[in-house]
């Protein structure tokens, strides 16, 4: 096999005058080569205008990759200056491949129409990658036969569709503005070995790849690769989490003379090797996807995701390139992704729905520089939520009926139960907790319609006496959904106390890099975690406070709120992660700050999360159980007389 050698691109000829001009020109943003992907598989999508005006522009996101040519998104992006990459849905692949007319119509309807306002960069004649063949089988558990045939079926249309779109772009005089690229997953070139030098394009893709590479080369288009580091981490048990999170490695992966201390560089160099073996070793590379999920699996948490994203962005900022392409990082890298999508396929795991840097309603889950620099991420403002109502299992009904299982399955197949999966934020709820979570999720996804809260008459909805005028339909009540999950979790912990050890910090979590003023506080993420555990123990009180209008929060509960404020490096983000809207977070903090003197924390160790043990624990749990009991058993309508 040919070795894949270090490749050095000759420096471009830059006239001295231009160099001088460049020297005085404003420094480009350090994250200039980074973009973010924006998908639309959401039951309650944030309106496109709010995404552009409230997230992309305030956070200075320089480029965006759209999953499809959404006219809402393209209209909202017009005049924004954000560079746009547009995807083409799989379903259009065949028509576009077989008809030049169809391709011309597609380009006209979805591109040309917007060119006066939108700054296009790339067109992808494919929404998803074509990682066809046997390698898909370990991703799509239980769905291989369909995906296999689907993939093989699409394979032959990819390059013809790309060619037809390219011709249409030339005819529309747009080919100098946009390039056609085809996203390919790392599975197209990385086989069982994790060593970059072993990589080559899969033999079952041989013909297609040769065609594709020659098409790309003829049009000076880059190769777009989609990386799934989380999936790779789950599959390669002998590669440490540090390797994926750009942490210092005491034992880097050795590959001949080259050493790799992170998965990202190794994947890029594997691609370089595969391209070299195929005769296209000079081809530019774009990373179309790189991200880390925050829920739905073990090690999928905001803290780990922040570690990955920050590591990636910092790594790209250094522009150090890889061992095979020193000083030549991928020409662009798209972070995956902007928002959570509760309707996207779970074929490669439940975590697939939790890749957002922001929650579905535009609230940042963690800190990363996506263009805004060292500042905190700006959240979407003026998000409208549904009323605070739930649909949960009625404890008074006979639950012995086996139909509850099929109801659960039905609710989950349409709703999103991925937070219940092992490692997920609502795992460990117990069976009834699971069922309530599923029913409630289904109910919220269906905009709280009466019909959607009816699974064999098992459930009841619980409404809070908030004035309806403050709530306009459109969004899930994020706090309500999450508080329900927390309430269920607390109830589950109380019941299964002996079995389930109190959760500690998840193994392998790298402490979130705290901002400068917090750097002195050693182990702050540990303390933050303990504070989060404490707040779980007062979920009932918080539900009463926020949703029932009770004007009282106990001292223990406020202490937990203040612990989060003091010990979590990004208290606001942390409160939003556990489900509070910014307004609700402010209400809690405002009440607690006003009510009780701040305790000195200094070097005093935080109260252990098991502080509630003993007498206190019993009463706290009782309170939780009764809070949850009343929540679950209540009939429609306001409860206060
Ligand atoms: C793009 O254009 C095609 C053909 O005119 C049209 O059918 C389709 O709905 C448009 N939008 C998207 C998102 O592809
Ligand atoms: C992986 O690719 C290398 C190089 O092409 C090859 O020698 C090896 O047999 C492949 N391994 C598997 C499991 O396909
Ligand atoms: C690329 O260009 C070469 C030479 O012009 C041509 O022979 C080949 O068919 C082209 N390939 C594709 C896929 O367009
Ligand atoms: C991981 O383990 C496999 C099988 O045990 C081995 O072939 C591979 O070289 C290992 N990879 C690394 C990076 O140690
Ligand atoms: C495809 O297969 C042929 C013969 O099996 C081989 O000569 C060629 O190098 C392969 N191309 C790639 C890109 O792997
Ligand atoms: C159990 O379910 C069956 C069918 O769904 C129904 O006919 C029966 O009345 C249910 N029994 C109870 C006790 O809910
Ligand atoms: C709750 O649901 C999750 C996801 O379906 C499952 O893994 C877990 O085992 C369930 N728990 C119980 C107690 O059934
Ligand atoms: C709820 O379910 C019961 C029993 O399946 C059915 O009779 C009733 O019509 C349903 N109500 C609604 C609003 O769908």
UniProtKB/TrEMBL annotation:
Region Disordered, residue ranges: 593-618
GO MF annotation terms: hydrolase activity, hydrolyzing O-glycosyl compounds
The X8 domain, residue ranges: 389-487
Gene3D superfamilies (UniProt xref): 1.20.58.1040, Glycosidases
Keywords recorded for this protein, A-Z: Disulfide bond, Glycosidase, Hydrolase, Signal
InterPro entries given in the database record: GH, Glyco_hydro_17, Glyco_hydro_17_plant, Prolamin-like, X8
Signal peptide boundaries: 1-33
Superkingdom classification of source: Eukaryota
Family: Belongs to the glycosyl hydrolase 17 family.
Name assigned to this protein: X8 domain-containing protein
Annotated source species: Eleusine coracana subsp. coracana
Gene name for this UniProt entry: ga26046
């Amino acid at each position: 096999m040919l070795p894949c050698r270090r490749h050095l691109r000759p420096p471009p000829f830059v006239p001295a005058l231009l160099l001088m001009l460049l020297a005085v020109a404003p420094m480009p943003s350090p994250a200039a080569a980074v973009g973010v992907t924006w998908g639309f598989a959401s039951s309650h999508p944030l309106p496109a205008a709010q995404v552009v005006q409230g997230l992309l522009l305030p956070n200075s996101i320089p480029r965006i990759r759209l999953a499809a040519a959404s006219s809402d998104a393209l209209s909202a992006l017009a005049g924004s200056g954000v560079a746009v990459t547009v995807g083409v849905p799989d379903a259009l692949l065949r028509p576009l491949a077989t008809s030049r007319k169809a391709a011309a119509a597609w380009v006209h309807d979805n591109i040309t129409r917007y060119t006066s306002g939108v700054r296009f960069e790339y067109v992808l004649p494919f929404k998803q990658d074509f990682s066809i063949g046997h390698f898909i089988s370990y991703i799509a558990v239980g769905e291989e036969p369909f995906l296999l045939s689907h993939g093989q079926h699409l394979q032959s249309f990819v390059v013809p569709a790309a060619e037809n779109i390219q011709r249409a772009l030339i005819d529309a005089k747009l080919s100098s503005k946009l390039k056609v690229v085809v996203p390919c997953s790392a599975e197209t070139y990385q086989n069982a070995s994790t060593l970059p030098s072993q990589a080559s394009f899969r033999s079952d893709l041989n013909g297609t790849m040769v065609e594709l590479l020659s098409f790309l080369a003829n049009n000076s288009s880059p190769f777009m690769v989609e990386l799934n580091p989380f999936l790779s981490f789950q599959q390669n048990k002998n590669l440490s989490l540090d390797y994926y999170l750009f942490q210092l490695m005491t034992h880097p992966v050795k590959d001949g003379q080259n050493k790799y201390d992170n998965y990202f560089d190794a994947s890029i160099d594997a691609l370089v090797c595969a391209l070299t073996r195929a005769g296209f070793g000079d081809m530019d590379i774009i990373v179309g996807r790189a991200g880390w999920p925050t829920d739905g699996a073990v090690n999928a948490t905001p803290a780990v995701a922040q570690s990955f994203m920050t590591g990636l962005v910092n790594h790209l900022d250094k522009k150090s390139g890889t061992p095979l392409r020193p000083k030549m990082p991928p020409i662009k890298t798209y972070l995956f992704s902007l928002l959570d999508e509760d309707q996207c396929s779970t074929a490669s795991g439940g975590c697939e729905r939790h890749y957002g840097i922001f929650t579905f309603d535009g609230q940042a889950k963690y800190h990363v520089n996506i263009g805004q620099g060292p500042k905190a991420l700006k959240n979407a403002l003026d998000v409208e939520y549904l009323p605070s109502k739930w649909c949960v299992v009625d404890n008074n009904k006979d639950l012995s009926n086996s139909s509850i299982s099929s109801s659960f399955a039905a609710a989950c197949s349409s709703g999103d139960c991925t937070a219940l999966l092992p490692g997920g934020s609502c795992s460990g709820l117990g069976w009834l907790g699971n069922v309530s979570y599923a029913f409630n999720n289904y109910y919220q996804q269906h905009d709280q319609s009466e019909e959607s809260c009816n699974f064999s008459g098992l459930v009841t909805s619980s409404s809070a006496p908030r004035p309806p005028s403050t709530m306009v339909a459109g969004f899930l009540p994020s706090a309500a959904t999450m508080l329900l999950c927390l309430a269920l979790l607390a109830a589950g912990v109380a019941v299964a106390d002996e079995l389930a050890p109190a959760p500690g910090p998840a193994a392998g979590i790298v402490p979130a890099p705290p901002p400068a003023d917090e750097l002195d506080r050693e182990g702050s993420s540990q303390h933050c975690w303990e504070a989060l555990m404490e707040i779980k123990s007062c979920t009932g009180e918080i539900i009463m406070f926020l949703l029932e209008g009770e004007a009282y929060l106990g001292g223990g509960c406020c202490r937990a709120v203040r612990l989060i404020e003091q010990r979590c490096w990004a208290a606001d983000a942390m409160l939003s992660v556990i489900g509070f809207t910014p307004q609700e977070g402010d209400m809690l903090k405002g009440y607690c700050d006003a009510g009780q003197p701040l305790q000195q924390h200094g070097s005093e160790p935080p109260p252990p999360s098991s502080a509630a043990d003993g007498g206190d624990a019993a009463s706290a749990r009782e309170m939780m159980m009764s809070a949850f009991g009343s929540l679950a058993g209540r009939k429609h309508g306001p409860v206060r007389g």
